[in-house]
Specification:
The protein is mainly α and 87 residues long. The protein contains 2 helices and no strands. The longest helix is centred in the first third of the chain and has 47 residues. The protein is rod-shaped.
């Protein structure tokens, strides 16, 4: 009897928790990307204005890659949560 109860209730509890976990991870990645966006933009302005050197260019490129990766992982988390909730 307990086994049947666990088999019936456990999937109904785990599925929303799994979806919520993916949404939280997606949100964290998007927040980290948003935080890194300002320093990357400042470096871009410095490099495009002709004031920056090669280290500023490298920092700008690394920051842009970091921001794009964060946005990508964040969106992937939300899309995965949507897929889980629809299944």
């Amino acid at each position: 009897m307990v086994r049947k109860f666990i088999q019936a209730v456990l999937p109904a509890v785990i599925k929303p928790l799994h979806s919520l976990w993916n949404q939280m991870i997606g949100f964290v990645y998007l927040v980290i990307a948003a935080i890194a966006l300002r320093p990357t933009y400042v470096r871009y302005r410095k490099v495009s204005g002709g004031e920056g050197d090669i280290s500023d260019l490298a920092a700008m490129i690394c920051g842009a890659v970091f921001v794009l990766a964060g946005v990508g992982f964040g969106l992937h988390g939300f899309l995965r949560a949507r897929k889980i909730s629809r299944s």
